[in-house]
Amino acid sequence: MKTKGTKNTIIFILVLIILVVLALFMLFPFVWMVLGSFKPKDELFAVPMNLLPVRWKYTNYGDVFRKIPFANYYVNTAKIAVLSTLGQVVTCSLSAYAFSKLHFRGRDALFLLYLGTMMIPYQVTMIPQYELIRNMGLLDTHFGLILLHWFSPFGVFLLRQFMLSIPDSFVEAARIEGANDLRILGSIILPLSTSALATLVTLKFLDSWNDYTAPMIMLSSKMKYTLQLGLRTFQQEFGVEYTLILAGTTMSLIPILIIYIFAQNYFIEGIAAGGVKG
Amino acid sequence: MAAKKSVSAYRKSQRKTAILFLLPNLVGFLLFVVYPVFRAAIISLTNWNGFKQMDFVGVRNYVSLFSDSTFIISLQNTLIYTIVTVPLSIAFGIVMALLMNLKIPGIKVFRTIYFLPQITSMIAIGLVWSLVLAKYGPLNQILMALGNSDPPKWISSTKYALTSVEIVSIWRSMGYNAIIILAGLQGIDAVLYEAAKLDGANAWQSFVHVTIPMLSPTIFFCLVTQMISSFKVFDIIIAMTQGGPGRATNVLAYFVYNKSFVDSRFGYASAAAFIMFAIIMFFTAIQFYGQKKWVNY
C-alpha cells in the first residue's frame, strides 16, 4: 500500500513537471516579448543573454507613438472590430431565427448553401470582393472592411444550431398570445441565446481585431491602418528597432488578453466550433 | 375548410416574415460570398490585370500554372508544411489533453496558458518568433549554451526557414487540438474504463483499447480542421518570411496574394486559388471516406 502511494506521488510530480515545462514553452515568447520591450536596443540580442533588462527602458512605449500613428491604429482597429461584430450579430440572429423557427419552402436547401460556402478559402473570394468594394467606391474606407464582416455564414450557422435547441413550444405560446416574430426573437429567443451570442461576439471581435489580409488589401492610407497592418509596416520600415516592435506588439495584445481572461470559455467554445480562419 | 385556409394563410405570413428576416444577411451573403465564387471562376479564365484588360484565355492560366516552377514549389512547400505540422500538433495535443484530464487542483490554469497562442494574432506571433529565432535570439543562445556551437540561422536560411515556420505553427495549434481532444476525453463514459479494469486491463491497455477508439471521432475532427487550415496558411508567412528566403517558404496562399495584389495578374492568381480550393475539397473528401474505415463511433 505504502509503495503504491510513493509510486503515485512520483507519477504526480512527473506529470506536474511536464505540465509546467509545456506551459513555459507556450509562455516563453510572450514573456520574452514583454521583457524585451523594456530593454535598450543593444541589450536584446546581447551575448550572453539576460532574460530581465539590465537597464529598464520605459521610453520604448512612448517612442512607438512618436514613430508611427499607433493611437490611430488602436482607434481604427477598435472601431472596425466593434462595428463589424455588431452588424454581424444583427443580420445573423435574424437569419438564424428564420432558419430555426420559421417554416418556408427551400429552407434547408438555402441553409446548405450557407454551410457549403464555409469551405471556400478566402483566396478564392478576395479578388472579386476587392473588385466589388472598389466599384462601390469603398476602397480605403473602414466601412468597406466592416461591410465584408456583416454577412458571415459562420455566424448564421452558430446561432441557428443554438436556436434549434430552444423548444418550438416557446415560440408557439408567444404567437398564441399575439406576439409577432420580431418580438419573439427579441424578448424570448435572444435572451435564451446569450451564451451563443457571447461566443459569436467574442469570436468575431477577435477575428476582426487580428485580421491582416483584408485590411492589407483594402486600406492604403497609413492613417487608416489597423494594428496588425501597422505593426507589419512598422517591421518593414523600422526593421532594426526590435525593442519598439516588441513594445508595439505587446500593446496590440493587451485588449484581447483582457477579454480572454474574462471570457475565456466563450473564446474556447467559439474556436472549437470552427469559427477561426486559417 | 376554414381551419385549412387559416393554416395556409399562416404559412404564407411565415414565408413573408422569413423573407424579411433572411433578407439583410442574404443580400450581403449573395453579393459578397456567393457571387465572388462565380466571378472568381470567370476571372480565372481571363488575363485580367485589375483594370481594363480582360481577355478570355480559356484554361491557359491553369495549364501555365503547372509549368510555373514557383507555383510547383509553393505547392510542394504547402504539402510539406501540412505533412509536418498536422500530425505533430495533434500528437502533442493528445499528450497535453491527457495531462490536463488528470484531477489536479488548478489544472484549469494550464488550459488558459496552452490556449493563449490561439487568441494571439498571427502577425504578433510571427513578429515575436522571428526575433526569438534571430541569429543571437534566445533560442540560439539556449542552443549555444547546450553546446551547439553553430546553431541554425532559422528564418534567414533556405534550409531551415520552412522548419522555423512549422515550429511556430505547431507551437500555436497544439493547444487548440488539446482543448478539443480534452472535451472528447471527458465525454468518454467512465463505465468503459471500469469494464476494462474488471477485464484485467492495465493503464496502457485501457488507453489503447478504450481511449483511442473512443477518441477517434475527435482526432478525426482535428485532422480535418488542421489540414484545411494548413492548406490556407498565409499570415504567419507574411509576418515571418514573406515566402523567402528565395522561394523557401512560398506557399499556395502566398503565391495567390503575390500574383494578384503584387504582380496584378488577377486571372492567373484566381486560377491558382481554385487549384487550392480543389486540393482542400479533395483532402476533405478523402478524410470523410477514410473516416468510415478507422473512426469508431
Description:
The complex is a heterodimer of chains A (278) and B (297). Chain A contains 14 helices and no strands. With 278 residues, chain A is mostly helical. In chain A, helix 2 packs across helix 13. The longest helix of chain A is centred in the N-terminal third of the chain and has 35 residues. Chain A is globular, with a radius of gyration of 24 Å. The model of chain A has no long low-confidence stretch (mean pLDDT 88). Chain B has 297 residues and is mostly helical. Chain B has a domain of 185 residues: MetI-like (MetI-like fold). The two termini of chain B are 49 Å apart. The model of chain B has no long low-confidence stretch (mean pLDDT 87). The chains are: A mainly alpha (278), B mainly alpha (297).
Biggest sheet layout of chain B? none
* Helix count, DSSP H or I runs of 4 or more residues of chain A: 14
Series of secondary-structure elements of chain B, N-terminal to C-terminal: HHHHHHHHHHHH
The major β-sheet of chain A equals: none
Number of helices of chain B: 12
Radius of gyration of chain A: 24 Å
What's the architecture of the largest domain in chain A in CATH terms? Answer: Orthogonal Bundle
Overall 3D shape of chain B: globular
Note the run of SSEs of chain A as H and E: HHHHHHHHHHHHHH
CATH topology of the largest domain in chain A: MetI-like fold
> What's the N-to-C terminus distance of chain A?
51 Å
Number of domains of chain A: 2
Q: In angstroms, what is the radius of gyration of chain B?
A: 25 Å
